[in-house]
Amino acid sequence: MANHSTLKKTSSTESSPSPMFLLHPSRGLIDEKFSLIVQNLSQIQDITLHALIHSDDGDYWEAFGHYVSDATGFVNVANDSSLGGTYDGVEPMGLLWSMRPVPGSRIGLRLRKKEVHTPMVVHISVYRGHMSQGFREQVALASVVTERWYMAPGVRRVDITEGGVTGTLFLPPGPGPFPALLDLWGGGGGLVEYRSALLSSHGFVSLALEYMTPRTSGGSTSHVGNEYFEAAFTVLKEHPQVCGDSIAILGLSFGTSVALGMAVYSTVIQPRCLVCVSGSHVQPVKGSLSDVFGEINKYVYYHMFKDVYENRVIWRDLLLPIPTDPTKKVDVGQLKCPVLMIVGEDDQNWPATESAEDMKQMMEKEGNSHLLTTLSYPGAGHLIEPPYSPHIRASNFMVAGTKQKLVVLWGGETAPHGHAQEDSWKKILSFLEEHLYRSTDVTSQSNL
């Protein structure tokens, strides 16, 4: 997928060549690092590097760093420090993970790729001096474009409605069979595809499942039950390109609750491993998953405007203190598969740190703590996404099954959150490879 890209402005004189970018790769996966060099600058020249994205929602996002060229007129983002801007220090990918809405944008924005068959197009420009605003009013010294993809060449996207299941299946190129994942997002609802597309680009079949939207039948409305997730797992298990005994579940936020509950209590779902991001095992375990939705929604409504910080709603206390009543949390002592827990220590939405500690104690008591690996990141918030995604401290949130829109505080600080995303993603992929490729029937191939 990689290729080189250079672009420079026309020189006005033979003796003073225009600044030029050296960018590699100009096309790559969203989680792939690029190298960025500016050459033909004056010696010890102040410049600003500026990155701009026009999102699928029609909004503009930007990041910028202040640099000083060396004695040869070079700036190498991999080695040189940003002296200011939206990030500081030596940060090779700071132009991506520090992105924020341009001044004057709508409030509560979150950058999420909706059309995964198209790239995230990033325009990078270099300006004279150290600028922090007014980029549109200035003429850039040089510009270059890089495409950031979630879908690698050959990955196929398939709409799924089989067995009443609603989702999108992503298939790596080739006949397989491949290891697979059931991809569960959180309480915001809707069908979110970009993480599944990226996982498929790394050789996994991935089913992005839509499960938060209430179903209407016979004049009544209800949430999906346990059988819905069992049906989705069966769709994966029976797919001809999936190795049926090498299936994992990846959950974010409420998706973690579902993953843990299904792994412990379902007789149909038997995952090879679990990846749980920013979630908890705390939930009422008696009854169906519909009852869990109802119980949590009651807490949410009670706290909707009770806990507010910086005019943002915080929900991390909804599940605190961690209950001692065994009917109010998943009995993780009964887990039989490896679990990777990823925790942001500044998570303001879920008590992820406290939950991970309680899970550890429960599993130690039952003698299965060797199955638990916890990655805990200081300064990281709730929305731990694939690497180089912008840190979102707070954003609009539609309460599932309602018309109530809030601005929710997710937490985290930009730099440590960005670093947590990069580190955790590498370890997620390694964890999945370790536990899903154990079967000799699984195809191991790179799609990059």
Notable traits:
Immunoglobulin-like, 448 residues, eight-stranded mixed β-sheet, 28% strand, Rossmann fold, six-stranded mixed β-sheet, 20% helix
Low-confidence stretches: 6-14, 444-448
Strand order of the largest sheet: 11-12-14-13-17-18-21-22
Compute the number of strand runs.
24
Mean pLDDT: 88
Distance between the termini: 6 Å
Q: How big is the Rg?
A: 23 Å
The percentage of residues in β strands lies in 25-35%
Oligomer: single chain
CATH architecture of the largest domain: 3-Layer(aba) Sandwich
CATH topology of the largest domain: Rossmann fold
3D shape:
globular
The major beta sheet can be summarized as:
8 strands, mixed
Give helix % range. 10-25%
Which structural category fits the helices and strands?
alpha/beta
What is the CATH class name of the largest domain?
Answer: Alpha Beta
**CATH superfamily label of the largest domain:** Alpha/Beta hydrolase fold, catalytic domain
Count of helical segments?
A: 7
* Number of structural units classed as domains: 2
Q: How would you describe what is shown here?
A:
With 448 residues, the protein is α/β, with parallel strands linked by helices. It folds into 2 domains: 5-149, Immunoglobulin-like; 156-436, 3-Layer(aba) Sandwich (Rossmann fold). Helices cover 20% and strands 28% of the residues. The chain contains 7 helices and 24 strands. Strands 11-12-14-13-17-18-21-22 form an 8-stranded mixed β-sheet, sandwiched between helices.
Short description:
With 448 residues, the chain is α/β, with parallel strands linked by helices. The protein contains seven helices and 24 strands.
